[in-house]
């Protein structure tokens, strides 16, 4: 496919997404736009919606297993202080959470694992729970933790290792 064909295909995909957001049905689009392309875009939209639903469900979890990979990521977190006009607060750098802008590559390097992009993103998203657990429990012990409700951050140890994480501090 040459540059012009790629541009045309990309533009049509953007149009299909826009029409979908404007509530134009798939069958109507197929009357005027290549049906294979419409199917491809709708599959991408459905996959994205499934992923978002799965992510939303994962945020509501009541149990979590803290692994050495989570600990490795937290120990490499790029944390700074932000003045917010009031008292200030600490925050993780949202563009370079582990030092570089290629977040997925950083995660694979830090964990030493060949992960897919989705696996790396999932591990990164799970650091929310890892940080809550570490801060609430005042320790870094791998294992299973549970909480009573979806909105709480009072994680209690269920089956943690009796020793701190095996990951060496840097």
Radius of gyration: 21 Å
Instruction: Describe the global form.
Output: elongated
Structural classification? alpha+beta
**Poorly predicted ranges (pLDDT <50, ≥5 residues)?**
none
- Strand proportion, as a percent range, falls in 5-15%
Descriptive overview:
There is one protein chain. The chain is of the alpha+beta class and 170 residues long. The chain folds into two domains: 3-59, no CATH class; 63-160, no CATH class. It contains six helices and five strands, in the order H-H-H-E-H-E-E-H-H-E-E. The strands form two sheets. It has a three-stranded antiparallel β-sheet with strand order 1-4-5. A two-stranded antiparallel sheet has the order 2-3. Strand 2 (79-82) and strand 3 (89-92) form a beta hairpin. Helix 5 (103-111) packs across helix 6. The model has no long low-confidence stretch (mean pLDDT 86).
Quick recap of the structure?
This protein has helices spanning 3-21, 26-30, 35-59, 68-75, 103-111, 117-137; strands at 63-66, 79-82, 89-92, 143-146, 156-160. With 170 residues, it is α+β, with helices and mostly antiparallel strands.
Question: How do the helices and strands line up, and which of them pair or pack?
Answer:
Layout: H1 3-21, H2 26-30, H3 35-59, E1 63-66, H4 68-75, E2 79-82, E3 89-92, H5 103-111, H6 117-137, E4 143-146, E5 156-160
Antiparallel strand pairs: 1-4, 2-3, 4-5
């Amino acid at each position: 496919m040459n540059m012009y064909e790629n541009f045309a295909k990309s533009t049509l995909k953007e149009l299909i997404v826009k029409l979908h957001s404007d509530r134009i049905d798939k069958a109507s689009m197929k009357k005027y736009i290549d049906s294979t392309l419409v199917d491809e875009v709708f599959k991408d939209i459905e996959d994205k919606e499934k992923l978002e639903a799965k992510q939303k469900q994962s945020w509501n979890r009541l149990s979590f297993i803290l692994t050495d990979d989570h600990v490795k990521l937290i120990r490499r977190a790029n944390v700074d202080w932000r003045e917010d006009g009031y008292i200030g607060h600490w925050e993780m750098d949202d563009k370079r959470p582990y030092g570089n802008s290629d977040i997925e590559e950083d995660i694979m390097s830090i964990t030493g694992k060949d992960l897919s992009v989705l696996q790396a993103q999932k591990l990164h998203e799970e650091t929310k729970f890892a940080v809550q657990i570490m801060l609430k429990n005042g320790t870094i012990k791998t294992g299973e933790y549970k909480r009573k409700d979806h909105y709480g951050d009072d994680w209690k140890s269920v089956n943690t290792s009796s020793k701190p994480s095996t990951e060496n501090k840097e």
